[in-house]
Amino acid sequence: MAAILIQVPDIGSFYPPEQAKRQIGWVFFAAIFGLAVLLFFSVIRASMFSEVEAGSRIWFDIVFLLFAAILAEFLVLYLRQPTVMVLMIVGILISPSAISAAWPYLSGSLNFLLGLVSLASFFPDNMPHLVSPEGAVETFAQLGALVLLFKIGLHSKISQIFNRQNFLVAFLGIIFPFAAGFLYASLGGHSFAYSMFLGAALTATSVGVTVAILDEFHVLDKQFAKILIGAAVIDDILALLVLSVVVNFPSDFSVSALSPLAGVLFSAAIFISGGILLGKYIVDRFIDLQAEGEVLPKKTFLSVMVFFLLYAYTAEFIGLSGIVGAFLAGLVLSRSKICKRIEEFILPLELLFTPIFFISLGMFVDVNALSQFFIPILAISAIAVITKVMGCGLSALALGLKRTEAALVGFGMSPRGEIALIIGLFGLSSGVLSNAEYSIIASMAFLTTIITPPILKRLMKRKN
Description:
Layout: H1 11-14, H2 17-49, H3 54-79, H4 83-93, H5 96-115, H6 136-154, H7 158-161, H8 164-187, H9 192-203, H10 208-216, H11 223-247, H12 255-290, H13 298-317, H14 322-333, H15 339-363, H16 367-372, H17 374-398, H18 403-412, H19 417-429, H20 435-463
Helix pairs in contact: 3-4, 3-15, 4-15, 6-14, 6-15, 8-9, 8-11, 8-17, 9-11, 9-19, 10-20, 11-18, 12-13, 12-14, 13-14, 17-18, 17-20, 18-20, 19-20
């Protein structure tokens, strides 16, 4: 039988040699690309819906939080709202309480859409494990808080902050809110510890939003603006000292019970006053002398980091919060000849750690508590605004400011922002506050930050 020969056509008979190579290259590229996409999706799915060893899990958590920070930056541009507020919203949306409430509906919708492309049941019915605000993420968040307060200190000037006018406005801005918050919680039947923490949270001020609006109207050089900013900085220092008093408050008024509180207050006075004097000496004799030339030497940057973290550790060790030490370190370094270059070196740390901090604050919020405690949240937010307007606004009037300027000072001190959240987080992590109680404080900080900008803009237009 004669052999039957079948000739397989060469691909080159259909395509020129160069075009054939190009076609094979595209097929190879598409295969590798598709396998890579499948690999990454599989890793993400496994990380979300199965247990992963803790040492490896941390990298997924960090990547997820940074991706959430990128999403928040897009939302900031689109919504034109303060970055802090948007980061907190993103944190709330990815919080365990929000995911548990939304997942039954979300997974069904996603699987229905994926079923159209034959990928049904890609998302299981069990709730995903996204990010826990505890563990290593908590450490990153604490670093974010320290870097944030260090940066605020770098932007402050000792001579423009610590004067009689600013102290008067700040002092009344502490007394009124603390007393009102404490009385509200006590009369509402809450525990003594919660009443103290609520009063402490109401004393704080976040002036970042206010400064942005004052800058928009080009009035940062006006007298009322200088008083507002200086009083806000002192307010935050006093608020953090109030936090230290609350944490170390005695159970009774015996000598043995009062001695720890007295020790903390004495140590705080020595740390703040002595820290400024010692810091000036270190800056003049060591840090500034190392910084020759236009490029900041590595040893100078390392010296600044040692200085900054040592102050934070010392404050934590003596019973204050570490953020007090971080702020004080920034305040001392604000007088350095290389202050601007220090800010440039700190910027990458700020971009990395600060978003994680604010997102983690939102993750602690219990969304179920928001609807359950809607009335208390509104009441506490109203108290927060009214007491600042009364305390700071009336003291500004006494200093000779006009009514509109005094109102600007009062409402400008109303946003609570990050310091109130830090105080609330401190109470939550120490076991004094429940998730619901922390959520109330966080919601108050959130609302006071939202309502302040439109009020300030209206007052600025009336003033002009």
